[in-house]
Design goal:
Elements: H1 17-37, H2 47-50, E1 52-60, H3 71-85, E2 94-98, E3 102-108, H4 113-121, E4 126-136, H5 174-189, H6 201-223, H7 229-235, E5 245-248, E6 254-258, E7 263-264, E8 268-276, E9 281-288, H8 290-303, E10 313-317, E11 320-323, E12 334-338, H9 343-355, E13 361-370, H10 373-401, H11 404-430, H12 436-465, H13 470-502, H14 506-536, H15 540-543, H16 553-556
Antiparallel strand pairs: 1-3, 1-13, 2-3, 4-6, 4-7, 4-10, 5-6, 8-9, 9-12, 10-11
Amino acid sequence: MAAPKKSRGPAGGQGRPGRSLALILIALVALTGGMFLADQPTPRLGIDLAGGTSITLTAKSEPGQESAINKTNMDTAVEIMERRVNGLGVSEAEVQTQGDRNIIVNIPKGTDSAQAREQVGTTAKLYFRPVLAVAAGTPTPASSASPSGSASPSASPSTAASDGKASATPSASATTQGRAVTDALKADATPSASADATPSASATTASAADEAAATDLEKRFEALDCSSKASRAKAAQGVKPTDSAVACSSEGDAKYILGPSEVSGTEVDSAKAAFDQQRGMWIVQMDFTKKGSKQFQTITKKLSAQQSPQNQFAIALDGEVVSAPQVNTTLSGSAEISGSFTQQSAEDLANVLSYGALPLSFHESSVTTVTAALGGEQLRAGLIAGAIGLALVVIYLVAYYRGLAFIALLSLLVSGILTYTLMSLLGPAIGFALNLPAVCGAIVAIGITADSFIVYFERIRDEIREGRTLRPAVERAWPRARRTILVSDFVSFLAAAVLFVVTVGKVQGFAFTLGLTTLLDVVVVFLFTKPVMTLMARKKFFADGHPWSGLDPRRLGAKPPLRRSRRVNAPTDPKEA
């Protein structure tokens, strides 16, 4: 006679609760260890709780563009600034308008305020301009030799462009250079004519105007001093993309005469920072739109036929030349910006180029320090409210569920530890900052988590009322409770996700925290509450239905125990009846 097969227990966490508990224990240890290894034992606080820096930016009106300061452009500037400093919406940097020409940027303590100031203040107006002349970045006496600018060695044909940092070497007289600049300006400004055409009076007048403009440009070029940041910024003021201009390099070691813009930064489709292994330097790689690619192809084809320095194009960002590579062949589709970049500065530049240029120029009107006195009082009030709410939940659980309250409180403790460690680690990881709305989201999550326990406990009680003992009741109640918990948490998470997408500023902090704690509720119920309940069902205190266990069959009005009876088939033969 064959031996009866042993029945297998429920698969997964139902039969082996120790595995689930070991998994969540490993997660707790890893997160807590990571929190201390990252030297971030507390969550990063928002500006309303920790204070920070408040920057006031005032829009500047460019010559002839006074009407550009309007509500549409101001709102666009706010949107771009917010994306630059607060890409995920949870770092608590606030950007908002004040009046008709001011923008207030609030940066929480713990954020690199200098970097953030650079991010929001950089207009990021990018233009690709042909180089007409280049010299050292100091004033050039008119009587002395003026360098025409021999550039750094050109790239090989297979290379898109060389670094192009111009090194000034005296090789041409001021007169020769002036004639070259005048000819280049006339070529850019005047349509070509046939060789036998007779110059008209208007053409003669235009030629005279071009020469006067070139002379004025040369004087400004000779007098330009790029040694200070103020003088470099002044050189870029009031320059239109359609005009020739003088400009300094971003380091101030060179100055340029530049022709009108051939490609605008608005035609940059994407930008990213990358490390060039061959040259051992950080660069910014850009891809153009279809229109920008055609424009870039046209200008590089034109420049490749010129002699140095007029075979260079300057990449001018906010009026300063960050790179001036030589062109030896026609290029299209993409370009790169190289220079004295660190990884951080390359990523910052790629960031502002990706999010677009500000429609207006701004200057800092004031920079002040914000204290957290008011926020601290509100935080204390919020924590007191949270403590009162938690105490009421504990009292309810103990009074109604008795021994089961022990499991619920342990689960709340695990959920609290997971929430705290994740909030601490998300500060340096994605810039998450805990503000007052986020604290409110965490308090609301107490109710969501407790609700999941109650659903499961009530399902177990229902099974006991049906006459089942505790161990089978725990396993039979779980599938029904699991569905309810998942549906409930899905609705909460969906609401948090929608709120996060359609709102801005502090409300996103509330939505983010609510969504995070909802996900953690699922993790805790599946990997901790259910396995602990399975283990407790094996203990005599709970299994025998002690009056203080919360599972006393008599108090629950249980039916008599269900007993399996052997099924007897009815006889078919009347003689056997």
